[in-house]
Amino acid sequence: MIDYKKKVVDAIIDRRATIAIVGMGYVGLPLVLRYVEQGFNVIGFDVDEAKTEALTRGESYIKHIDGTRIKEACRSGKFSATVDFSRIPEADSILICVPTPLTRHREPDLTYVVNTIESMVPYLRVGQLLSLESTTYPGTTDELIRPKLEACGFAIGKDFFLVYSPEREDPGNPTYSVSTIPKVVGGDTPGCVEVGRALYGAIIERVVVVSSTRAAEMTKLLENIYRAVNIGLVNELKVVADKMGFDIWEVIDAAATKPFGYTPFYPGPGLGGHCIPIDPFYLTWKAREYGLNTRFIELAGEVNTAIPDWVVAKITEALNLRHKSVNGANVLILGLAYKKNVDDMRESPAIKLMQLLQTKGALLTYSDPYIPRFPTTRNYSFDLASVELTEDRLRGSDCVVLVTDHSDFDYKYIVDHAQLIVDTRGVYRNNEPNVVTA
């Protein structure tokens, strides 16, 4: 009898294993490069042929990922990118890194995960490991994926292995990389856990094993709910501080000097990114199946969702004090990305702000060195391209709204030439007369 567990683990240890990664985005592509650089053969799958063609040419379409690393991966002969799922049998381990957004009704949308599994099922074989990395609700792996695999005749933990290992990628963070961020792995059988530990232990310094796929799924949600709730708290306190007439950033900095029992969180124009605005609602949806209401999580969501409206109210008030109306005002948005120094616009509060301002009749322009042209999204479309921050452009804008505090912006130059700045990131702290904090 073949010991498939030993066979897969030995292939990983000896670097003979071929790794398939589905989803060549902010999570999948860094994993590709790390596995290749550690000596593995890697196949990158994506349904977007433009991405696979760019990777084949050795080009990066993600600003913080150096194209040189992709060229080197291609030249090594250990990496290929494809849209052809018939190559799945070549892989010993398969990692799924596809989006898990929300529907319009704020319910989990697992379309990408389901479509990926269905595309692979005809080509799966015994002796493979499948790892889901996409953020989702507890129970997805064993309720949705495992039955599809067992329907193919696989014995999970014996001749096929299934784990859940949530992504922890932080785009643009220079301090942490794929190799240094601890990796949580959960499997429902000892064999699955052993193979999953080997897969990730080959490229990551520390692997943290939990008791089940559900525990691993919940770990990811806890991490992001923790951030969402604390950001909601500090955003609410920002509104209180503004009404009471003191600087919330000064208060946060002072509180952060306490060496225990406090972690600083900072307010902003709203929540952004693919994780924090979305992931908490995966748990609230699943909790309803058990007759539970996650009131704390939903309240934080309400606070964070309302912040763009509050920012627009501050913009309106600031223009009114200068005898101007939002209707017809030239408003320049600084930064479209959801956070500084990345080119990721997913769920960016800048988009919601632009929609609200446009509805009120504002004439919009934007500047973002990471996003040269406003892309078409599922819900929004602006026919705009990034503008250069010239003296004339700044003086000609009735209001400059600082939404994303990219390091590339020359903030002194901006404040020296802008008529009015509404700062949502606490960049200007010197009581400049033309700056309003929001």
Q: Please, what is the CATH homologous superfamily of the largest domain?
A: NAD(P)-binding Rossmann-like Domain
**What do the pLDDT scores average to?**
95
Based on secondary structure, the structural category is alpha/beta
- Estimate nothing, just give the exact number of structural domains: 2
**What portion of residues is helical?**
25-40%
**Counted beta strands:** 13
Q: What is the global morphology?
A: elongated
Kindly provide the name of the CATH class of the largest domain: Alpha Beta
- Number of helical segments with 4 or more residues: 14
Q: Order of strands side by side in the largest beta sheet?
A: 3-2-1-4-5-6-7-8
CATH topology of the largest domain: Rossmann fold
What is the rounded Rg?
24 Å
* Poorly predicted runs of 5 or more residues: none
Write the layout of secondary structure elements.
Layout: H1 4-13, E1 18-22, H2 28-37, E2 41-45, H3 49-56, H4 67-75, E3 79-82, E4 93-96, H5 111-120, E5 128-132, H6 140-150, E6 160-164, E7 183-187, H7 190-201, E8 207-210, H8 213-244, H9 248-255, H10 279-289, H11 295-321, E9 330-334, H12 349-359, E10 363-367, H13 391-395, E11 399-402, H14 411-417, E12 421-423, E13 435-437
